[in-house]
Amino acid sequence: MTSERAYHHGDLRRAVLTAALDVIRTEGPDALSLRDLARRAGVSHAAPAHHFKDRTGLLTAIAAEGYALFADELAAAPDLRERGVRYVRFAAEHPAHFHVMFRPDLHRADDPELLAAKDRASAELRAGVTGLPATGRGDDDRLAGVAAWSLAHGFATLLLSGNLGGAVGARDPEAVFRSLAELLFAPESS
Hints:
Largest sheet: none
Structural class: mainly alpha
Oligomer: single chain
Helix content: 55-70%
Number of strands: 0
């Protein structure tokens, strides 16, 4: 059979990605198997390889999709603090993407689609830092960016792993994050 074979499945690529995201969300990325995903999607075990070649290709596609969604989320925020809130929201709404995106050992770092999506997301994060008044970011934009990234990524990671229950309690995690960001990146006082 040729690689042009019709699968009679609709969008097989999306079906495999969706199944993979479900597995990652419930069992983690190490539980992924193309054979299992093919079974879940109701196709031959070779069908996922047609779209992704191998497991690393699938995880690369997930990371690229995640970074593209992430960049869109960040672009919708007006300032650095809200970009941080969007960071936390993205992690909470897309935990499987989030876990794969920040595990470079899982994907092909030189993939053009992944690189383009990562560049877009990085540009959105940098735009938030450069939008701060000079007194709010210090002398080094890169270090201010690392501080902002560390706060948002650390908070999101702790939230996803269930380690903020006592500190956050029943409060909205986004509101808690806004308060934390205000502590580090206080607006210029009059």
